[in-house]
Amino acid sequence: MGAQDSLEIQKLFLSNLISQKPYFKQELPSYSEIYNLDGKRISHSLNLVETTKNPLQHSENIAITQALERTKSKYLENCILLSTLEPCTMCMGSILKARIAKVIYFLQNDKGDGISYSPIEWIYQLNHFPILEYVENKEIFSDWKTFFMDKR
Length: 152
Ligand SMILES: [Zn+2]
Fold this sequence. Notes:
Largest sheet: 5 strands, mixed
Distance between the termini: 42 Å
Number of helices: 6
Structural class: alpha/beta
Number of strands: 5
Shape: globular
Oligomer: single chain
Strand order of the largest sheet: 2-1-3-4-5
Bound molecules: zinc ion
Radius of gyration: 15 Å
């Protein structure tokens, strides 16, 4: 997957994200999509923690489970996961187990509970650590801020 494809997928993701915004009222504004090498979307999900009262139902975890079901494969080695927020350490576990090739996110986790906080020594020992790409996005940052201001 070249740099140009990655940009195309980012554009698709950001435009799909707009249609998901009405659902951001209850759940954290976390949204994930998984694409294959051909740039085809395989799965997408919002967070469903509040809806299902299950703290494991992060958008990344749900999108990974759906992508595995839909591709009927054990791994997602040629897949790219995009998420509004940097995946947490729980979702990082799922990303590693599913062998996702690349993760693109648009807002950094500033609490230390994020995939980019993995120690470098540990990353080198793993065979399937994904390429991480952080792309700053002011609109996603502002969705996040609005969500927490409305909750107060
Ligand atoms: Zn997570």
